[in-house]
Amino acid sequence: RGGDFNGLDANSLNEESISYAEFNEKLKGSEVAFVEFLAPDGDVAYATFKDNKRLRIGEGYPIEQHDGYSSPMFCVRAVKNAGVPYKFVVPALMKS
Question: Residue 49 phi/psi, 5° resolution?
Answer without folding.
Answer: -95, 165
